[in-house]
Design a protein that fits this description.
Radius of gyration: 16 Å
Strand order of the largest sheet: 2-1-3
Distance between the termini: 29 Å
Bound molecules: manganese (III) ion
Helix content: 40-55%
Order of helices and strands: HHHHHEEEHHH
Largest sheet: 3 strands, antiparallel
Number of helices: 8
Number of strands: 3
Length: 202
C-alpha cells in the first residue's frame, strides 16, 4: 500500500492571521506531497512497503536516507496538521495540564522550552513535546525530518506535539524572524488533539 497525502482537516486559510494561507497551501500541497511521493519511491520493492509508518521509523536505521528523510517528513507533517486548528490556542486542561505542571512547573515554562528548542535548532528541524520512555513529558528537538520515534534519535519517545521550524513553515510571513513564528503558533494549537495523543501515548 502506497502512502497518501490526506486533505488538511481545515481550510488553508483557517489559521490566518497567525499562519497565512499561501504558506499552508505550499507547505501541505507541495512540501508534504513531495515527502509522500518520495517516501513511496524510496520504499518501492523493499519490506517497508508492508509496514506501518511508525514501524518503519522505529527501525529507520535499517533503511537509506530516502526513507529516513521522507518517512520522517510524512509522519511529522501529519502530526503537525492534526495538532493545529482554528478557534484553538489557550492552554491545555485536564490530565495533560496536570502532567505539564508536574514535568515543567507550569504551562508557561513548557511554552518557553518549546520555543527555545525551536529557536536554537540550527538550520532545519523540529521542536517536540514527547512522552519519554519513562512515561514523563519532555521537550526535545531533532534535525531535518528526524523525530523522537526513530531509533537514531538522541532522545526517544512518542511525540504528541511538534513545531516545524523549517523556513518553509514561516518564511513568507515571518522571514528570518523565527521567534515571532514560535510565538504566533501558540494561537493555533489544538490542545484537545494534543491531549488525545497524550492519552494514547502514556
Ligand atoms: Mn514542513
Amino acid at each position: 500500500m502506497a502512502f497518501q497525502l490526506e486533505a488538511l482537516p481545515y481550510g488553508s486559510d483557517a489559521l490566518e492571521p497567525h499562519i497565512d494561507k499561501e504558506t499552508m497551501e505550499i507547505h501541505h500541497g507541495r512540501h508534504h506531497q513531495a515527502y509522500v511521493d518520495n517516501l513511496n519511491k524510496a520504499i518501492a520493492g523493499t519490506d517497508a512497503e508492508n509496514k506501518s509508518l511508525e514501524d518503519i521509523l522505529r527501525q529507520v536505521s535499517n533503511y537509506g536516507p530516502g526513507v529516513r528523510n521522507n518517512g520522517g517528513g510524512h509522519f511529522n507533517h501529519q502530526l503537525f496538521w492534526s495538532v493545529l486548528g482554528p478557534n484553538a490556542g489557550g492552554t491545555p486542561t485536564g490530565e495533560l495540564a496536570e502532567a505539564i505542571d508536574a514535568a515543567f512547573g507550569s504551562f508557561d515554562e513548557l511554552k518557553k522550552k518549546l520555543q527555545e528548542a525551536g529557536a536554537t535548532r540550527f538550520g532545519s528541524g523540529w521542536s517536540w513535546l514527547i512522552v519519554g520512555e519513562d512515561g514523563k513529558l519532555a521537550v526535545t528537538s531533532t534535525p531535518n525530518q528526524d523525530n523522537p520515534l526513530m531509533d537514531v534519535a538522541e532522545v526517544k519517545g512518542t511525540p504528541i506535539f511538534g513545531i516545524d521550524v523549517w523556513e518553509h513553515a514561516y518564511y513568507l510571513k515571518y522571514q528570518n524572524k523565527r521567534p515571532a513564528y514560535l510565538e504566533a503558533i501558540f494561537n493555533v494549537v489544538n490542545w484537545d488533539a494534543v491531549a488525545k495523543r497524550y492519552q494514547e501515548a502514556k
